[in-house]
Amino acid sequence: WRSIIYTCIISLLLKLLACAVQQKLIGENLGGSVAVKQMVSINSEGIRAMRVMLSDKGITARKVAVLVGGPDWPVSVLCGILGLDLLPILIGTLPVVVLIVPTVLCGSFAYMGSIENDDGLDLYPWADTMGAVASSVAAGAMFSFSLSAAGAVKDTLQNEKEKIDSIPLDEAVRKADEENERKNDVYRRITAWNSLPLLFKVLILLAVLAMMACCYLLVIFNTQCFREYDLMYTIRQNLGGNWTNIMLPLGRIALLLFVISYALLYIFESWATTKVNEMIDTMDESGITPLTVTKVPSYSA
Predict the structure, then answer these.
(1) Those residues with Cβ within 8 angstroms of residue 142's Cβ, 6 or more apart along the chain or in another chain
(2) Which residues share a beta bridge with 247?
(3) pLDDT digit string (tens) for 37-83?
(4) How many other C-beta atoms are found inside a 10 Å radius of the C-beta of residue 18?
(5) Which range is least confidently modeled, 20-24, 61-65, 114-118, 133-137?
(6) Burial class of 48 by CB neighbour count within 10 A (0 to 12, 13 to 18, 19+)
């Protein structure tokens, strides 16, 4: 039990450290970056509602719901952008221990279930069952936290709409979002099937077929693709000291198909991105490609 308690404490400290780093180093120092604000979706209604909740003084139930059940990276970065004090945020994150404890227990029971006595029998035959129970509790805790965060955001959107609407939009992010939407429109136009050159139609078809073949091999013939490897196995004892031995010949073929598919998709995306940039350069502000000036011959005397 001492090792389980120790692991829970270390896991909680790692979670708090991650929140502090994301808030202080990313949110506060890089909060002026348009790219970071875009990744956080700072102008979206959901994030603006979280902004209202996180600005509550002290520690409130909805604030804790967002800190624990909300998306980890955007919430921590948003706290840094808002310049919130770190200590109250870390205190409000402490209930995450309710998720950490059953997760640690799940791993502990998995290890205990692999221990055998001198007769080759399980030393803790009940451990696998308890592992399943701990896993269910962890999943339930995660679902509960996520549901409470979603409910808090929904209530804030409904009951404090005026306060949310009063938050000014970040103009730099708005312009960047508009530019991205413009590029997406052009991308959809360029990559429409009827507009694609024959070479790139063949390219994308081959990429899809390679990925389909990879997925079918891994799903239908999974036991023939990889060697059995349990959570408690070690590379030295079970794979002869070489981690690549986990792959069987059919598994290597599946991974090769994945690499081929990715390479073909990368070529397609690179071509499409180049075409998008070329078309954007020829567009006016309205987003319409201007016609080239054509000189018409004159037959007047």
Answers:
(1) 99
(2) 226
(3) 888 788 888 888 888 888 887 778 888 888 888 888 888 888 888 77
(4) 14
(5) 114-118
(6) buried
Q: What percent of the chain has pLDDT over 90?
A: 31
Name which of 11-25, 110-124, 175-189, 237-251 the model is least confident about: 110-124
Its pTM stands at 0.68
- Tokens 């770190």 belong to 86
